[in-house]
Design a protein that fits this description.
Blueprint: E1 2-8, E2 15-21, E3 32-38, E4 44-49, E5 58-63, E6 73-74, H1 80-92, H2 96-99, H3 102-111, H4 117-141, H5 150-172, H6 181-187, H7 199-210
């Protein structure tokens, strides 16, 4: 029993990956398990959410007396916290955090006034950002980064993405006011610093787990 908001493609999926409490004993991080749940299981209700870009792939999912076979358990009972932390390392360090708006960046370069030295300087700065992000992602893939460092990769890449979006909008001029597929993708950009953990959460992880700083 319960509900989950911001479930990506919940209305289209055959299964959902559910993290839920299965035991109330022990510390808060214990007793949480990962379960694969068929979306047509009785007791599941799905409601689509329309976001500011008019996309409707986000959903709110309600679970009412939903029963799932024990065989749908992923990993160990009560082991979801540790398992999820390892999985998030891969998600936060993925290349999709960096290249989702690279085509828009190239389009902006093709339409802007590259004879302007300030614009050329900004293009160079953003291109360096892509290259730095690529190095960070490769370190994650090759497992050269310390535990928790994917927070830095996500933080840098998603904030770089927003800097690129701002540049593209400015270079498009009045065309940036026309709601087409390109503009829709640019408007979606701020969401990347929220999904998978906000930038503030990422900085806390870096401070506490990577740098060993005191909390508070």
């Amino acid at each position: 029993n319960g509900q989950k908001i911001w479930t990506s493609f919940g209305a289209d999926a055959d299964y959902c990956y559910l993290i839920c409490r299965t035991n109330n004993e022990g510390p808060p991080h214990a007793g949480i398990s990962e379960i694969i749940v068929p979306m047509k299981t009785p007791g599941i209700e799905i409601r689509r959410i329309t976001d500011m870009t008019t996309n409707r792939h986000f959903c709110e999912v309600f679970f009412t007396d939903v029963r799932v076979p024990k065989g749908n358990l992923v990993g160990q009972p009560g082991g979801a916290f540790g398992q999820t932390m390892r999985q998030l390392e891969h998600e936060r360090g993925g290349i999709d955090r960096l290249v989702s708006n690279y085509a828009q960046f190239q389009h902006a370069i093709s339409v802007c006034d590259t004879s302007d030295p300030l614009i050329r300087q900004e293009i160079a700065s953003l291109e360096m950002g892509y290259r730095i992000g690529r190095i960070l992602v490769i370190r994650e893939v090759l497992r050269q980064a310390p535990a928790g460092f994917s927070a830095a990769t996500k933080c840098f890449c998603t904030e770089h993405q927003q800097r690129v979006d701002s540049f593209v909008f400015r270079m498009m001029g009045a065309d940036g006011m026309i709601f087409d597929d390109m503009v829709q993708g640019l408007i979606y950009g701020p969401g990347y610093t929220i999904m998978g953990g906000t930038s503030n959460v990422m900085r806390n992880i870096l401070g506490e787990r990577v740098l060993g700083l005191a909390k508070g």
